[in-house]
Design goal:
8 strands; eight-stranded antiparallel beta barrel; Porin; elongated
Length: about 190
């Protein structure tokens, strides 16, 4: 029984060591967010570069033209609608395994979209009236995320991420809260 247990332990350690070296030699990864595409009709792609054993950095790019959000915006249910985001990030792996691990992330967000407000028009020749004025906004925000990533066949990545932050510079027009929620499918090479 001891020999069988020792053999099992040796095989599992060898496969984990081989798995770690295969993943460690692959430094780049591209991902597509499936959740954003299906739920929010938002195109979201990411690139990540791995450094050392626990750190990585990358950028996430989102473009949105959702009919539902645009209808809510046009009908007055919301006063802004996000159109794009550029999210650079830094990640730290919280688990020892390279094939399945939790991570923490700090991200920045350069985002923009459409903004609408009701303004009062003062005209001396006629009575005052109100109208809707549409404009564009851009803002910069900071936030944090937590996530879980797992690899299949040493290259296929599945990642779940949840994070929130706040816009900082143009808060009267941009959304107060920015989010990074996604289910990403990727390829590491």
């Amino acid at each position: 029984m001891k020999k069988l247990f020792s053999l099992f332990l040796l095989i599992s350690l060898a496969s984990q060591a081989q798995e770690n070296t295969v993943l460690s030699s692959k430094k780049n990864e591209f991902r597509v967010d499936l959740l954003s595409a299906v739920v929010y009709t938002k195109a979201s792609i990411s690139y990540e570069r791995f450094f050392g054993k626990d750190f990585s950095t990358g950028i996430n790019v989102n473009f949105s033209n959702s009919n539902k959000l645009n209808e809510d915006f046009d009908n007055g249910y919301r006063n802004n609608v996000p159109k794009f985001e550029f999210n650079p990030y830094i990640r730290y792996a919280l688990s020892k395994s390279k094939s399945r691990y939790y991570f923490a992330e700090i991200f920045g967000s350069y985002n923009g979209g459409d903004y609408k407000e009701i303004i009062r028009i003062v005209d001396m020749a006629m009575p005052d009236y109100y109208t809707t004025k549409k404009s564009k906004y851009t803002d910069f925000g900071l936030g944090g995320s937590l996530g879980y990533k797992m690899y299949f066949k040493d290259s296929i990545a599945l990642e779940f991420i949840v994070g929130f932050g706040s816009n900082l510079t143009n808060r009267d027009k941009s959304p107060d809260v920015i989010s990074r929620v996604g289910l990403n499918l990727g390829y590491r090479f």
